[in-house]
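TL;DR need structure tokens for one chain.
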Amino acid sequence: MGAFIVWGNGGLIPAVMWIAAVLLGAVLTWLVAELDRRAYGYVERADDLIVTHGVFVKRLIVVPYGRMQFVDVTAGLLERWMGIATVRMHTAAAATDATIPGLPTSEAALLRDRLAQKGEERSMGL
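>> reply
TL;DR here they are.
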């Protein structure tokens, strides 16, 4: 629609430039979103869970199992349609809350159960 408005007011070259700018913006947005998706990672260790994410600024969050208050698995309408879910670990300190998005629903449920069990073994949270 915008290209037709530009074409009607400025001609063919500005309309082509406008379409190229929109396509370039869409490609860059997709690229950053894909890099962000690949940047998420987590590792379960003996005493804590490490979550890392970030494209431009890398963030590393260490959540001790004993400090977790509860583990939440959520899936919105689009996530359910895609078969994925988000796991959220809540602690008393908001700075150490961690989120792992985009997990398959079965893996998210298993992770929640493992984290809950490890939290109960440490008997400080959950």
